[in-house]
Specification:
This protein is about 35% helix and about 25% strand. The protein is an alpha+beta fold. α13 crosses α14. The longest helix has 21 residues. The N and C termini lie far apart (about 70 Å). It binds one RNA strand through β13, β14 and α18.
Amino acid sequence: MATVTINLPDGSKKVFSKPATVAEVAAAIGKRLAADAVAGKVDGKLVDTFFKIERDASLEIITKQSKESAEILRHSSAHLMAQAVARLFGPVKLWVGPPLLEGRYGFYYDMDLDHRIVPEDFPKIEAEMMKIAAENLSPERFELPVDEAVQLAEKIGQPYKVELIKGFGVSTVSFYKQGEFTDLCEGPHLPRTGFVGGVKIMNVTGAYLHGDQSQKMLQRVYGCAFFSQKELDAHLAKWADAEKRDHRRLGTELDLFFFDPIAPGHPFFLPKGAFLFNGLISYMRRHYEREGYQEVVTPQVFLSQLWKQSGHYDHYKDNMYFCKVGDDEFGVKPMNCPSHALIFKSRHRSYRELPLRLADFGMLHRLELSGVVGGLTRVRRLTQDDAHIFCAPEQIEDEIANLIRLGRKVYKTFGMPLRAELSTRPPQSLGSDELWTRAEGALQAVLQHTGEPFQVKKGEGAFYGPKIDFHAKDALDREWQLFTIQLDFNLAERFDLEYASQKGSRERPVVIHRAILGSIERFLGVLIEHTGGDFPLWLAPIQVRVLAVTDKQNEYAERIEKELRILGIRVDRDTSSEKIGAKIRKATLEKIRYMAIVGEEEAKAKPEVVALRDRKNLDKTDSEWVSPKELAKRILEEIPA
RNA sequence: GCUGGCGUAGCUCAACGGCAGAGCAGCUGUUUUGUAAACAGCAGGUUGUGAGUUCGAAUCUCACCGCCAGCUCCA
């Protein structure tokens, strides 16, 4: 038998006289590695530690520390949970149980069982899972041809697995068996159940089979698992912290906004929330001035005829608000594009005007399903930082490049990294092959040119054009889809938009829909959670609070407040009859950045000063004396251009 | 829209078939305070809405509305 040469990631090689398992290779490298190995990656494919490498290959040992180990741990934990549930509550019919790599849950398993799982069951399930972990079972893998696999699944009472097997369209499938529990699975799995060191069952909800509400509802049990209890505790602490940053909670605590059942999905912005809302719009406007956008203001309500022409009446009617006045039916706008098409069409357009960039902060109404509205992230009344760029096909590339540059600049200001996804032509689409090829090529070329990695989502584009979606990562590593660029070959067609080319011929423009923050409401919700309510100074509704130590300084405090306000600072004051400690506590809870404390000493000083307390610098015990002018200067210097 | 859970004072929660209560916030008074909570008093409610069961309902039943967790959707 020929030897087997294993290439390791560090460039070294191990030669074996006969096929070796991943575990054997790990053992040959070192004891520690062998103990820590949870899986292997053979020629880029994840396999179990007992996988036998038959021929020359590259191998990476996946340990507890490897990025890939989380997926394996979580997947194995889903099996562990199913086994525990089967032990506790009798026969369980299983559907699917995938690992989840983002968010607070680590995995779920969809199951069908007679017992209805309630939160009181969670500790029991956790205990049973840890019992199985303590049994330290080693999963065995075996493969069966489809017909035998179906027989086995039927024998072990797993009708949903029969359906899965038949749906795969392959000739053989694999199973894993640990103790009394056998499950259809591709793997890989942890070498032993003992690798699971800490588990938490977190939630149980209903989930329809095939996501179809006419079908049976299964119980979806969510949990998370770690190699150690310590990591589990850290994870739970992190998400407990996330709850404190929930924008709905901070919205109430910081007096930013509220909701009333009288208008579900329609936020009421309080003065401070409205300040943030308008601040974000002003921030985008400042960019627009430099980027050659022209802002327009457009109607709210249109005769349904417009929506018939735009196609919304056929495709989006269920999400629109309509009203009847006399014999006429009107629809409230859910999008700005038709208005902008009408503006383009309002007179003859020349190639000299292109690219024509029309920005619009108009308010949009979308009748979202009652089950999906929630907080600021999904509202029924929204304002996008919307714009439509009408351009010639050969201008697409430049426009997209500019947009990406602008978008990156904006997100850098907020400290959120971006990740791009390019969605290409779906099976059902509108527009010529030539146009699609050209547009997709342009988008791809621009993305490549920026040099940053991007994923291609094949066939996920809109029917009217390809798009680039950006995912922004917040301070808790959660991703949000906010910034989007969509090409549209349909709008110009439907509204018969044309411009006169240099040669005098009539040409169709291409339309680019784009929103950088997305919707202001949603972005604000995300920003509240990203910052925990501690907004960047340039956007904070209150930048300074003047605190009087005693009533005797109230007048002085008022004078300082006025002076700061004249210097362009957003300032208020606390001249209540509380002790200074209480005022500081109040300002701290309101997350006000600068506290300008004025007592007897400050009031006596010439020229006038305040004792400054900076929340960014809380360790500093002795507060520093600064003049109002100096304070204002510092604040204004901190504001980005 | 579907499934499940939950709606008590502005906020956080208690009372769980028998007189609706506390803390914080608010108001009034006292206190004049030096770096994260001074003290006292007052006020605050048709217990989401509407029916029903009961001698009696915040509590049990039903319907509706809203919120939350998911599913689905997200031109």
